[in-house]
Amino acid sequence: MRSRPPGAERAAEPAAEPAAEPVAERVARPAARGCHGDAAGDVPGDGRPVVALVGSPNVGKSSLFNAVTGARRTVGNWAGTSVEVGTGSWRTGDRELAVVDLPGAYSLDPLSPDERLTRDLLVRDTEAEASAGAGTGARTGTGAGHLDLVVVVVSAADLARTLYLAVQVLEHPLPVVLAVTMGDVATRRGIHLDAEALSEELGVPVVPVDPRRGRTGELASVVLQVLDAGQPPRPAPVPGPSPEAPCGDADLAAADRRFTRIAAAVGAATHRSGGSRTGWSDRVDQVATHPVAGPVVFLAVMWVVFQLTTRVAAPVQGFLDGLVSGPVSSGARWVFGALGLGGGAVEGLVVDGLVAGVGMVLTFVPLMTIMFSLLAVLEDSGYLARAAVVTDRLMRAVGLPGKAFLPLIVGFGCNVPAVSATRVLPDARQRLLTVLLVPFTSCSARLTVYVLVASTFFGRHAGDVVFGMYVLSIVMVILTGLLLRSTLLRRLGTEDLVLDLPRYQLPLPRLLVAVTWTRLSAFLRTAGGIIVASVVVIWALSTVQVGGDRSEPVRNSAYGTIAAAASPLFAPAGFGDWHATGALMVGFVAKEAVVASWAQTYATSEPADLRRPGGLGDSLRADFERSSGGHVVPAVLAFLVFLLGYTPCVATLAAQRREIGTRWTLVGIGLQFVLAWTLAVAVFQIGRLIT
Q: What are the tens digits of pLDDT across the range 362-386?
């Protein structure tokens, strides 16, 4: 379906979720803090004028936010990119405004938590003023939760559809400025917009902008004029429903009046040149969304992504690792030797702990940069929305709409924002199921382990093995969804896919760099600190001896003793060795730290090139040979399967607890561990019979 027609169809749907739904309120509640530090509750109340940006998905609202604030709000050419409230400062001349980027909404009749949040922040103080008898329309003054002006972002290429939200906002006593994006797309379609005519029809200032290219036109000056002068006179709002009319009829009548007003505005402000024709975007969609060709294209695209990720990053990783393990580490040891501290605990902590941890983080940077860049290309081009259409049939089989694939695809980058992105789903139980499925999407943190293990045991076929892990990730999402739907979530229903497909567009390098840096910096801030801390803790535990045999100091350390105690649990899966068990324990904190734990426990340096594991690879091969009884390949595959499916990192667990509560988070932990262990044992036991 090309678009989600707002307004009229909503009257036939339930106004609220069932009262018996135990998780609904927790899922709908805004988070206290977003993945990148965005506030998700009240708007600023520090005395600056507050400007809210609102608009339908895919109109360029978050791009406009980034353009006027210089912030790095995550943007993407698909619905549901902004699921929390972003705040920033807009400096224009000697004035500073507080800007609030609200989640995308098709209308003020909310169907999902993110739309409900947008409606609440837009209308709560205007309703309070109305109930207090503020009949003059004057504003009450800046304060916490107060909006001084609303910039409604609409698309010139889809004016009739995106004006519905604007018309609803105009029904409230809020100063409004209309920002019109995608004028270039409209021109290519033969649509010409008269901004002055649209302004006269709606009674509000209209400013054409191009936020993707950083062109905001006269928006700043117009916003300041409206803030200083107050809202100019505009046509009377659409009258509300009659108290005597039935609720459904009243809603339909109000929607009909709005559509009439929209039709008049579009007719007065736009005209077309040339005849209608099928655009190249529609022709591409005939293949990209085809029930047979579409999945083939999707798998081919994902295969290219992971091949590039595993191959291109290697030379840069080698350089960075060589720099840290060579000159940097040698220089640090020389300094400690010159100070008379060589060979001591302080040198070990700094060189083998802190320097090694920072070095590992640096080697991850090229891999993460390439992965995030490629995903940004797919997002900004508009292809990932088509992937949701392709996967709709599979999603519906587990009781989810194709739209649920969007937060799941985010999970392939990082599970934490993927959990937050489930707020775009309208049904509470669908959100619950999707949150439980997100950890089965293989986040980029696992990628480094895949590359190392696959390169060690499968050589030139490593890229194919890594690709296979991501395909298996999708399979596990589907199978787990089917299991949950037939057991814990039997009442889960299905619904048709209703998704706004954005236009295809050529990704802009400036935006790709901004999006990639936003995600990479978030990785460095969160995972980087966890990795360094984990490496230091592993080093510390490895130096504490609890056994009498000093010939194997790491094995008889506190770390080795704990790992050895847990290793029999994994013997049926073929990797019941304390090195592997210890790595998985560390992976519970952060999957990125698995490689570092191996490097430390094997007392070897991390490989300069993950595709050429060197001494670390030799140690891994020897231990898997011993623990598997000679059935190395099944054991390695079982290890990778378990790594894919078992408990996610602690940051993801915190995000899950925030969205679905402690009880369901614990259910998810147990489910993930049991399924991962069962599949790993099955892979090894079946594999050793046929190898």
A: 766 776 778 778 877 887 787 877 8
